[in-house]
Amino acid sequence: MDADELADVRAAYDREMRRDARPDTADARVERAGAVVRQSAPDGAGGGRGAEWNRVLWSDLDEETADAEIAAQVAYFAGRGAGEVEWKLYGHDRPADLGDRLRAAGFVPEPAETLMVGRADELAALPVEPPTGITLRAVTDEAGVDLMVDVRAKAFGTERPAMRHLLLTLLREEPETIAAVVAMAGDTPVSAARMEMRPGASFAGLWGGGTLPQWRGRGIYRLLVAHRARIAADRGIRYLQVDASADSRPILERLGFATLGTTVPYVWTAKP
């Protein structure tokens, strides 16, 4: 993609996936409040990020309005009993010192990620064959979700119970918005990933992509990207989007993904 196309794609991403975002699940709520767009978990579900994340998705701030708006969002989520709130800050968001202002308000930055996009039709055409002994299993039920959760815990060393709830909720209530897959070595799950698709959007998000350490470097990550790209292309989705870690970025670049910018999750945690 040339610079002009990348600028157009970034503008479309900001519009479709941030400013005009849809909620993660049917019982979460996305709303515009002043100069921000935020997602709120249902009442009584504000204790974590995962099932229905409490998040600020988009903002239109300047040096004069930023501090007051940050304080207003903290007050709003604290009033709802939220245990954590994520403010997803993108490198092109304004004002330029918004990250510093978030830190001053008690938000803590997590590791930076690279916002990357690729054309779904091109990625779907990648010549990829499963590594020897690997088969793919589509996740359509609770047993499949448990395999995904198990892989994630072993691949990343963390457990996210709320993610299990999110996956089960989407499969039950909005199955058309998710495509999840587990790579199996015989009866052993060794890698897993998912793709989230919102009706009418030009973008599908690739998430997860966790592979057990002893199975890395064999082409499984590439296989899961191509598999999801074929699903997206069949549905007429133009772009795949990834918030890439430092480990994933070089792989995605080799596959043809381009960089739109950087993103840093800033997390506010309620005090006990």
Automatic annotation (TrEMBL):
The keyword rRNA processing does not apply. InterPro entries: Acyl_CoA_acyltransferase, GNAT_dom. The keyword rRNA-binding does not apply. Residues 134-272 form the N-acetyltransferase domain. It holds the Pfam family Acetyltransf_1. Keywords: Transferase. Residues 18-49 are annotated as: Disordered. Residues 18-32 have a biased composition (Basic and acidic residues). Coiled coil: none annotated. It comes from the Bacteria. GO terms for molecular function: acyltransferase activity, transferring groups other than amino-acyl groups. This is GNAT family N-acetyltransferase. It comes from Streptomyces vinaceus.
